Every structure is written in C-alpha cells, then in structure tokens.
Amino acid sequence: MWRVRLSWSTLAGESLLWGLTAPTLSQGQGTTGNTKVDGWGETEVKSPEITRQNRKAPVEQDWTGQENKTEWHDGEIERNNQQNSKITGGKHIFMRKKPLNTTTYIRYIAEAAVIAALYAVLTIVIPGGSGQIQVRVAEALTVLPFFTPAAIPGLFAGCLLANLVTTSAGIYDIIFGSLATLLAAFLTSRMPSKQLAPLPPVVINAIAVAFILNATIKAPLLITMGFVALGELIACYGLGYPLMLFLEKRGGSILGK
User: Fold this and answer.
1) One domain, residues 38 and 146
2) What is the mean pLDDT of the chain?
C-alpha cells in the first residue's frame, strides 16, 4: 500500500505521474496496487490489473491492455480465416484440401470447363450415346469426381450440352438426365475406394434413363434398365477404370495437384 501526500498546487501532476509509475512498482503482486490521496479526504484509486493470466497472446502488453487485445484479436481472425478458407475434396489423395485463393478459383473453373467440353464433344461426335441401347463413351469421364471436385459441375454442364443436341427423349432427358449425371458425379466423389468410384453412374443412369425412355417413347422399363446398365458398365468400368489407374500415376501433373 502506497500513500502520497499532495499539495493543492501539485495534485493533478503528481496523480498523473503516480498513475503511470504505479504498475511498475507493484507488478510482483499481480496488480497495480491501491493509492490513497489525502487532501479533500481520502480517495481510493485503482489501476487496471495486469497479470499473466489476463494476456491472450505472447505479446508485450501496456498497462491499459489495449495494444495486446488488438493484436490478439487480429491474430485470431487470421487463424480462423486460414482454417476456414479451404476447398474440401473427396476420399482420394488428390482430393486433399487446398487454400482458397484466386489461383484455385481459376484452376477450378478451367478444369470444370475442360471436362464439360470433353464430355459434350465425345457424346456428340461418337454415335451410340443415346437411346434404349447405348454406350456413351463420355461416361468414362464420370470417374473424374473421384480426383477433383471440379468434375462435378463439369460433367453436369457437359451432359446438359450433349443432351440438348443428341437426345431423342425431349425435355425430360435434358433436365432429368443431366440431373442424374450430377447426382452420380457427387456420389462418385464420396466413394471410399477406386473400385467403387465408377458404380454410382452405372446405377443412377440405369434407373433414371430407363424411366425417362419409358415415359417418353414407351420403352420397356426393366429391359431398358438392363441395356442402359450394361452400356454404363462398359463405359465406366471398361473405359473409366483404366482412366483412373492412369490418373493415379499421372494425376499430379494432369490435374494440377
């Protein structure tokens, strides 16, 4: 406890000086201590506490605590931004998290655009990709969501463009056929192993395309489902699975990982 007698003429200056020096004198107690000033009467003045527990960052703190609090707050914001700014991939090693920045956005859009263009061109140029009996070669690309999330919107856009040109089932195939490809691509990205990665497009498209053709051109439901499933097996496992094996060896350079 510190006591200082102050005259009327020096009260303001002495009080200010005492307020600035008191923390240094009393740091050993964990507080700045109390000061009683005689004059008009006894007045108890308390300075803010400064303890090691009050510090939220290993940065030196002035007696007001303002500088340290600001630096800690900015540091927390930066750390939270780094933790939350991620693109989360699927189960494969190439689908690891990547920092979300301008380069990542550009690469994501570029990959999606290339995959969409490849799917549309392969479907339009190579015949036999629509109808009750079909082997759509472009369906080999449906394994790509296992490696990159950009393939999900890319396959959807490519299928939409291809169906606009080649479909014989009208608006139903354009809408629901493209949505089936989107769902299959999403499920492929969540598959736990490469052996199961080509399976979602086989199952989803066999069901969706069979119902679409049955509703539009009265194709037999179960027979059409079997033919479409067979065509998907050829495209996804016969062509897509070797593509997966190739990408596992060369995917680092091809997909920009």
Assistant:
1) no
2) 74
